Amino acid sequence: MPSACILEGRARENATRGLFIAVAPLFSIVRGVSDAVISKPYIRHPLVLLAFGVLFVLLLRSAWLSEDSYISFRVVENFVEGHGLRWNPDERVQVYTNPLWVMLVSALVAVTGEFVVTVSLLSIAVSLGAVLWTLPRAAATAAGLFTGLALLFVSRAWIDYATSGLENPMTCLVLGPFILLMLREKSDFRGLACGVLLSSLAAVNRLDAILFFAPGLLWMAWKLLRLKALPSWPKTIAWLALASLPLWGWLIFATIYYGFPLPNTYYAKLGTGIPKIELYAQGLLYYLNSVSFDPVTLIGIAFAGVLSLRSRQSGPVLLFVGVLLYLAYIVSVGGDFMSGRFFAAPVFVCAALIARLIPEQRAGWIAALAIFLLGFLAPNPTFLYREDRGPVATGGPGDFENFKAVVDHRGIADERAFVYRSTGLLPLISRERLQPQHPFVSRGKQMRAAGEPVAIMSNAGLAGFYAGPDVHIVDNMGLCDALLAKLPLAASEGKSWRVGHYLRDIPEGYLETIASGQNQITDPKIAALYDSLHLVTSGPLFAPERWQEIWRWNTGYYKKALKE
Asked: Which residue segment(s) compose the domain that 295 sits in?
């Protein structure tokens, strides 16, 4: 029987191999950095060299894997073990929003057979690579480079999600070349095609990341059109179609394989029926949480905006407009339950802008020192963060009080503190046990041992991963369930919903339907919807009747039925 989790002995055997595989990207990064060092001698400034070393130590100390990352890891393990890109092996549902990251993790885990060391060191390597590749080239002066680095050092948003097992490192890595492309202040068709390729890769990594690229790409296209510098229309269309192949290629694949071009989480989080005004209010609360949790991040973003506008250079201004679009998007979706997660990519772009625009004067070094000191206004600064500040999850009655210490009244959590003791790289290594110790892990193992065919979960990451592929997980938040994602918010939730945790009512007979393979849902309307979705997610890929249902779902045929 295929294993749903990597056994302890196997993890130890493969940890060393995981180390070498995961840090492989650093070898190509070293070559790029050496080019920058040769062209910009100030990068050899002792303080700058010290800063790079400190950054590595910070990333190593903070490395952790979020509970949500294990949702993707379950897909990765099923994929590596031959079950396909699936959460539950008996159905095709895209439960992840980060296909590019999932593919990269899958490739490495297929070699190492281990998750904790592999993904942690991969995240460190990619995050450090993004910084080493981008900031030295973007910086105009040593003071600028050090100021940009200082912002990343003290930003809880960036440091926390430079690891975590989520896709943030890859987003920053793809953003880096585009930032440099925009800062060079030149427009040619080759640059436009490169920008489209980078935006396409970023969108495959996470679809909303395309907002960072949109203003710059539109400006380049408009400028080339005005100057009549584009090739013939057939060549232009052909080259741009080729450059955008990663995105439209993935959307076509997702539609064929899953039946929907967008991930299931899109429908689960944006199809709740919650009034827009409530989401906007929650989005603003996400900013207020950052003010108290990590004030330097928003200050740094605002500072980069001021520098960009004062520069009157099109490249920096357009990059910051992309940041503003993303910041507006954060409000529109109600923010997130992970404090700082959505600010990680914006602050990376702004660190590069600051590195470019800070002057080589005493004022530049003063700005670097000021940003560094402002970082200590956070309740748990990056340099002073200790693992013993988080709650101890025991599974006992006292856990609720422990968790309240890291979740504010808006439902937004210091997610790293929530699980760092259980999933942090250094805590696990110090315990000589490369397997998280958490009540969710214990629950998953218990379900696996009991052979439960179907189980309901609200926190499906760790528990779902360790339950194994033989347990069909019904995620009552709809993130991993095609039917529940399409249903409205549970009536019991009312206005007490927590952002990112949108509970659904389990239709009567639904669990029996999954266990038996026969539709036993008592509500005839929901039963009909299930039959349609089951055909889409479990039927033969190219059956004509399946494609008829795919067309109906993606053209709004069932929208009226869902609203009734």
From this structure: 8-377
Token pair belonging to 345? 């990519």
Q: Which of 5-19, 233-247, 439-453 has the lowest mean pLDDT?
A: 5-19
Residue with tokens 């210091």: 414
- For residue 192, pLDDT beyond 80: yes
Please check whether residue 373 lies inside any domain of the structure. Answer: yes
- CA dist 317 → 39, 135, 219, 323 (Å): 26, 17, 11, 10
pLDDT at 214: 97
**How much is the average pLDDT of 145-156?**
93
Helices marked H in 433-543 — which ranges?
Answer: 439-450, 460-467, 482-486, 510-516, 524-538
What does the DSSP assignment read for 177-201?
A: HHHHHHHTT---HHHHHHHHHHHHH
Average pLDDT of the residues in 273-279? 89
> Regarding beta strands 472-475 and 454-457, do their DSSP bridges make them parallel or antiparallel, or are they unpaired?
parallel
Length in residues, the chain: 564
CA atoms within 13 A on the CB side of 68: 22
Q: Where are the beta strands (DSSP E) in 58-200?
A: none
Tokens representing 6?
A: 């990597």
Tell me how far CA of residue 28 lies from CA of 36, 138, 198, in angstroms: 13, 19, 18
User: For residue 490, what is the DSSP state?
Assistant: P
CA distance 218 to 235: 18
Where helices occur in 358-414 by DSSP H, the ranges are: 362-374, 399-404
- The dihedral through the CA atoms of 501, 505, 506, 507 has a sign that is negative
Residue 12 pLDDT grade (very low, low, confident, very high; cuts 50, 70, 90) = very low
Is 401 in a helix, a strand, or coil? helix
Q: Which residue has the tokens 């609720």?
A: 400
Domain count for the chain? 1
Alpha carbon distance 413, 477 (integer Å): 18
Q: Does some domain include residue 152?
A: yes
Query: Which is more confident, 501 or 284?
Result: 284
The whole-angstrom distance between residue 521's C-alpha and the CA centroid of its chain comes to 35
* Alpha-carbon span 404 to 332, nearest angstrom: 26
Q: At what angle do helices 362-374 and 142-154 cross, to 10 degrees?
A: 10
DSSP, res 44: G
In a domain, 395, yes or no: no
Q: Distance between the two ends of the chain, CA-based, in angstroms?
A: 44
Q: Using alpha carbons, list the distances in angstroms from residue 356 to 141, 161, 194, 314.
A: 7, 24, 21, 13
Q: Which residues pair with 164 in a beta bridge?
A: 65
Mean pLDDT value across residues 437-452: 87
Digit-coded pLDDT (tens) for 42-99 = 566 677 778 888 899 999 999 999 999 999 999 999 999 999 999 999 999 999 999 9
Q: Does residue 37 fall inside a structural domain?
A: yes
- Give 494's DSSP letter: T
